[in-house]
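Quick start: read one record
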Amino acid sequence: MNEEKIRRINALYHKSQNGGLTEEEKAEQKLLREEYIAAIRADLRSTLNHVSIVEPDGSITSLSKEN
């Protein structure tokens, strides 16, 4: 998700608050929001894949899906 798309999401939000959106703009907003959420989920999954938990017995459990 690049800065241009984030700016567009914000612009559509502000326009929806001030005067409303056309049907085309609503569809664009929905697609951009879905893309944004997918990017956030991918970032979170990447972060969790690099996290390990040290158990009380000293063993290490990785949160990555590869386990």
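The CA atoms of residues 12 and 18 lie 10 Å apart.
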